[in-house]
Amino acid sequence: MNILHLYPADNPLITQHVNMLGEAPGEAAPHIVHVHGCWHHATVRQAMQAHRRGARIVFTPHGGLEPWILSERRLSEKLCKTLLWQRRLVECSYVVIAQGRMEAQALHQLGWNPRIETIRNAVVTNSITPEAMSQHTRDVYRKVMDSNTVELMNADARRLLTLLLKAGITGDERWIADDPPRIDDTEWRRLLIYANHENVRTIVDRGYHLLGLRHDYFDTEHITSYLPTGYEKPHVEAHDVAGITAEMHRGRITLRHFAELDRALRGDTVDDEWLCDSLQENRLLKFFRRLLQVLTEVTALDEGFLPAEPLNDRGTQKIRNLLNNHLRI
Predict the structure, then answer these.
(1) What is the distance of C-alpha 55 from the center of its chain?
(2) Closest by Cα among 187, 205, 178 to 300
(3) Using CA atoms, how far apart are residues 151 and 72, in angstroms rounded to an integer?
(4) What is the tens place of the pLDDT at every residue in 170-200?
(5) d(C-alpha 136, C-alpha 63), whole Å
(6) Which of 39, 84, 189, 274 is most buried, taking the most CB atoms under 10 A from its CB?
(7) What does the pLDDT look like over 246-287, one tens digit per residue?
(8) pLDDT digits (tens, 9 = 90+) for 16-32
């Protein structure tokens, strides 16, 4: 994990705090940009540039968003403009770190970001040691990198996930013609965390055993992550093709839904012509054809199980985006 700290060099307390954290950036692009302090436009601009390149932001305001500071007269002339970019940084952060209970309460009341952790500052209090402060901060970094892991997975991990789902759904490794890609433990961890969040871990584990793979085991139920507001582990209410399609049309587009749609298509004895006529009657056929296109990509559903011709258009891309962004915060 490569951490880049951005902070005002003219603030000795923040500088001392950063030095205590002991994170030295490597030569590669940062995975996490940890921004310290408020109201420094150049710092915010640099952080947002890194964010657009894929870095995740952690923000420690060091008391800079306390109510009495926000109401200071010296900020009043440019407050609207200043708040605009300062608020944008807070909203884009995976997590905001408060340094005490009162600051955490103020941040919650501000309402700019619901993900708030409290880690006391060893520079100004003896209630925590520098070592404990550093460890708690590293725990937050780990939690950030264990969130929305599909965004971080490389092409080999995504391909392996597809093969694991296909093997797990069919229950037969003979459906897998390609050799599974080799991935390292970091990618394997990301894959399993994503599978857990999308509620397909059981299917993936079954595929894993069928394909005879060997990787470290990760108990993803006990790995903590940041999840979107209102997140619930996906489940599928319907069990037939038409019901699952209707459920997905109502916006429930998750990997678990695609897995269950694949399973239903492989096992469903419904006549293809009748199914398509029924979906057409309910104005769902075009949407269903788009689902079939994405299904061939994420679970490698075979041509012989396709009741209609897949459709790849702008609407299909919207479905891909909904699936890929399901865990985005």
Answers:
(1) 13
(2) 178
(3) 40
(4) 988 887 877 889 999 999 999 999 999 999 9
(5) 19
(6) 189
(7) 999 998 999 999 999 999 998 867 788 999 999 999 999 999
(8) 999 988 766 655 778 99
Lowest-confidence pick of 48-57, 60-69, 302-311:
60-69
Do 159 and 181 contact (CB within 8 A), yes or no? yes
The neighbouring-strand residues paired with 118 are 98
Query: d(Cα 179, Cα 280) in Å, to the nearest integer?
Result: 39
What span, in angstroms and rounded, lies between the C-alpha atoms of 171 and 210? 7
Give pTM, 2 decimals: 0.91
Please name the residue that has the structure tokens 């490569």.
Answer: 2
Longest Cα–Cα distance of the chain, Å, equals 73
Contact indicator for 133, 97 with CB cutoff of 8 Å: no
For residue 215, what are its two tokens?
């990787």
Question: Token match 């269950």: residue?
Answer: 260
Strand residue runs (E) in the chain: 3-6, 32-36, 56-60, 95-98, 116-118
Which of 266, 260, 270, 267 lies closest to 235, judged by CA?
260
Residue type, 262: D
Burial group, residue 256, by CB count within 10 angstroms (0-12, 13-18, 19+)? buried
Q: What is the DSSP string of 40-104?
A: -HHHHHHHHHHHHTTPEEEEE-TTTT-HHHHT-HHHHTTHHHHHHHHHHHHHH-SEEEESSHHHH
Report d(CA 266, CA 315) in Å as an integer. 25
SS3 content of the chain, % helix, strand, coil (to 5): 55, 5, 40
